[in-house]
Write a structure and sequence with these properties.
- The protein has 164 residues and is an alpha+beta fold.
- It has 2 domains: 93 residues, Histone acetyl transferase 1 (HAT1), N-terminal domain (Histone Acetyltransferase, domain 1, Alpha-Beta Complex); 67 residues, no CATH class.
- The protein is 20% helix and 23% strand.
- It has a 3-stranded antiparallel beta sheet, with helices on one face.
- The longest helix is centred in the C-terminal third of the chain and has 10 residues.
- The two termini are 27 Å apart.
């Protein structure tokens, strides 16, 4: 993760730092939780790294911090009323979730039925999901970078995204 934390991949100023970045399975909205046992006390100009600020450029502009707002077989059961309310009111959430685009294939396995959907990045819902999941590119592809979606040379018409 040197693209975020530098070549040495270190974060200064924490004991037992834990960064938990999870994604909703339908919209790929992020849930970032940062915890630690203790933090370095500031001494003059020497301060602990601001982990959230280091991650912010790589997260969608409106990443969502909710309590366990991920998809599961029980939907929103077991979540706080605030989390259910925030999740339900977000415009990307629908009940039940339907991927953007058109279904191009469907198949059944013992665990259930599955569909493959395709959409152009000109579809606002597909674009929103793409933006939400872009951080995964540099996390899992060494040297991978975020796509500048505002670059006029990068036309959205030519790109198709597939959802399972």
């Amino acid at each position: 993760m040197h693209f975020i934390f530098g070549e040495t991949e270190t974060i200064f100023g924490y004991k037992k730092l834990r960064i938990n970045l999870t994604f909703a399975c339908d919209t790929m909205l992020s849930d970032l939780k940062i915890s630690y046992q203790s933090r370095f006390k500031d001494v003059g100009e020497t301060k602990a790294d601001d982990v959230e600020a280091m991650l912010a450029p790589y997260l969608p502009s409106e990443y969502v911090e909710l309590v366990s707002a991920l998809c599961s077989s029980n939907g929103c059961q077991g979540q706080t009323p605030e989390a259910r309310s925030q999740r339900a009111s977000h415009p990307l959430y629908t009940t039940p979730f339907k991927p953007p685009g058109i279904k191009v294939h469907e198949y059944d396995l013992k665990d259930g039925s599955f569909g493959i959907w395709k959409a152009k990045l000109t579809d606002p819902k597909a674009m929103e999901i793409f933006k939400n999941m872009q951080i995964l590119t540099p996390m899992f592809i060494d040297g991978g970078t975020l796509v500048d979606l505002d670059d006029p040379q990068w036309t959205l018409e030519r790109w198709t995204i597939f959802f399972l």
